[in-house]
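Q: I have 332 residues here and want to know how they pack in 3D. Can you give me a structure?
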Amino acid sequence: MASGEHPQEPPEPLEPPVSPRRPGARRIGIVGNPRSHSYGALGQDEALIRLAEPETRGALRQTLRDFATNGVDLLVVQGGDGTLRDVLSALPEAYGDSPPDIAILATGNTNLAARVFGRVQPGPRGLASLAAAAQCGTLRRATCHTLRVEWPGEPDRLPLRGLFFGAGLYTDGKAMADARIHASGVHNGLAVALAVLSTVLRAVLGRRGGTERVFAPDDGPIKSGRGFVILATTLDRLMLGFWPFGRHEGRGRSTIRWLDIDAPVRGLLRTLLGMALGRDAGSGREGERRTGLSRRITLRLQGRFVLDGEFFDPGAEGVVLSDGGAVTIVSV
């Protein structure tokens, strides 16, 4: 260096460097709409927080890959059951067998998962409480098995992972809720109750309902013909105290609780009472309801099904339901 010259200052970095991760600190990723809520209360350590607003499922998959690369181990899902389903479906590609903890900031119509496992209070205070509890290690934790839905006749179609599957008159009730109930401003548990009530009234009035189906659980007889309603879930409780799946004890890795009712229904009021009280089903004779606990269900349907609030086409060869693996849901 010539005499009198001054050393040049290094250029300013284009982005601020990421600070080293403190021992025990959690990296938090938020999937949702940052513009619709203020996240300023979490700005005390921006290196540990990432925000994303993916508008498509492809963008969501890329977001989760980025989160995994950057060590995000606590994922906040802002939305309803459908948003959670999309996140659960995309997680294996990004995280493999080591998914992050998931917190639910419920802003959807039904929010079944949030009501079962607990949710983060919307807004900056709730998120700040979540961040503080995460760093202190005081989050409440619950293990949640997911319900995997795949199309064996369409190998290029990505499987889904959700929590609650419904077909038959459940699909009709969901369509009615979307068209009339949600449009009138009624949401959450009341909307679900009204949709179920409308479905029951249709049955009582004798209107034809349900769907043609072939239902084949791995540990029970195959049922074919018209089904009144078909439900399946990996949850062990629902909201409003409603539990139509009987009280079957867990058997090994069997995690799918299911309900299958023939159409037309025999003894509708007795059937509905048994569903409401959580009683086990009868012998499985024609026209009666069956409940069970299985590892795998093969199902062919003539009509659409609903997975966590969204309609899907079962395809020509039907779908297979199985255990999609477990995740950890956390709350404050």
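Q: Anything worth noting?
A: The two ends are 59 Å apart (CA to CA). DSSP finds seven helices and 15 strands in the chain.
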